[in-house]
Amino acid sequence: MTLPLKSHYSAVVIGGGQAGLSASHYLQVHGIQHVVFEKKTVAHKWKNERWDAFCLVTPNWQCQLPGHPYDGEDPHGFMVKDEIIGYVDRFITKVGAPVLEGTSVTSLEKSGDLFRIETNAGSITADSVVIATSLYSEPAIPRAAERLPDSIMQIHTADYRNPGQLPDGGVIVVGSGQSGCQIAEDLHLAGRKVYLVTGNAPRCARFYRGRDVVDWLADVGQYDITVEHDGMTKKKHDTNHYLTGRDGGRDIDLRKFALEGMALYGRMHGVSGGKMLFQPNLKSNLDGADRVYNGINALIDRHIADKGIDAPAGSPYVPLWEPETEPTELDLAAEGITSVIWATGFTPDWSFVGLPIFDGNAYPVHRRGVTAVDGVYVLGLPWLWTWGSGRFLAVGKDAEHVVGHLADRIVNKAVSSVLKQAVNG
Asked: Is there a domain that residue 300 lies in?
């Protein structure tokens, strides 16, 4: 959208993804003048950084953007890429946010009682700022990538689309989080020889005891747990559980993949002499993922027993395959490796923020999105408040709280100003 840039706004939202658009929705509800700065295009990641076979890993009913719940006919299904984009596009149209696309924020500083925001389109001031840029700004690729032979094609998951874009030969997928496991499966189903480098990502069953596990967990109240519950304070940095909604949904079982010919390795710790090197922790990575898998199912078992629910019997997962050895290196040329996909996540970009809102690990300090700097808020982060924070499920609730606080601040400042004038008058 092309808009004239004003010199001052009551509120500025930085980031035009689902979090920033949700903030704009509630700012409009409160009648607060604002602008949304988006350095690329609105909902860029959904439209430009997902592979062709991408689908949701949570059921469609969890799509609860503000004023825009899932509007299809398959609430317990899993939208595929084009359907997700359609859902997001309809939300964009409903919100009608005042967005300036292609506008990068280069500096955010305090300026008296206001905030000064420098952008590639000019400089403005604002009474308040919502930083909604998420944790997924820039692809994270380890420096070891620089030591791979030039003959090997390297891409990040943000640039992967389908097996056909890769040269013939073996493919290494580095990382076993949600994206890594789903892309490894995509390649595996296409008949490619896959070498999957695992990490400590947990796994979760798709269906258990007659229902989608997400449905059970919603009944248990798992999605209502906040970061302030005992033992939950570190959850904001946890890796997501891997499973898939592909073809109606199923487990992702790396041991099954191994039986079918996929090669599995422990965590990568370097590249040297044409070889990729690994830690000898494949077994512990697989065992750890299965321990979480069985733990979630045990939670559901207790819920069923406590509530006296009539459900099909369940049982713990029993490993289908065990690694006989712990391979610590892979000769890339000898194995015919021609490409590497880095499923190593993303890093946030808060370099423009010149305000004291970060902890010693450069992570924003906040309580439910409200920082210690009066008038500055963060939104769209995982575990901002609950398990659903940052996702379609609860980003709207987070935005409602943050904008509610922002609106109260405006009212309080106005009242204080009137009282001050009355006293001075």
From this structure: yes
Q: How confident is the model at residue 228 (pLDDT cuts 50, 70, 90)?
A: confident
Contact of 162 with 249, CB cutoff 8 Å: no
- Rounded Cα–Cα distance for residues 383 and 376 (Å): 18
Rounded to whole angstroms, the Cα distance separating 40 from 34 reads: 19
Amino acid at 29: V
For every residue of 137-156, DSSP letters joined together read: SEE---GGGGGS-TTSEEEE
Which of 282, 311, 342 is a domain's end point?
342
pLDDT (mean) for 100-118: 97
| pLDDT tens readout for residues 302-343 | 999 999 999 999 999 999 999 999 999 999 999 999 999 999
**CATH code: domain of residue 307:** 3.50.50.60
**Residue owning tokens 């919603």:** 218
Same domain, 393 and 321: no
**Residue-number span of the structural domain to which 394 is assigned:** 8-137+348-424
Q: Other C-beta atoms within 10 Å of 202: how many?
A: 18
Verdict on whether the full-model pTM lies above 0.70 = yes
- Residue 397 is which amino acid? K
Give the H or E element holding residue 404.
Answer: helix 395-424
Nearest by Cα to 37 from 80, 68, 3, 69: 3
One-letter amino acid at 345 equals: G
Between helix 81-95 and helix 18-29 the angle, nearest 10°, is: 30
Cα→Cα distances 142→178, 327, 328, 351, Å: 18, 21, 18, 20
54-86 residues labelled b (16+ CB within 10 A) or e (exposed) = bbbbbbbbbbbbbebebeeeeeebbbbbebbee
What separation in angstroms does the CA of 5 have from each of 24, 30, 41, 370? 17, 21, 17, 26
> C-alpha dihedral over 295, 297, 301, 306, to 10 degrees?
70
Tell how many helices (H) and how many strands (E) occur in the chain.
8, 23
Question: For residue 316, is it within any domain?
Answer: yes
Residue found under tokens 């988006």 = 38
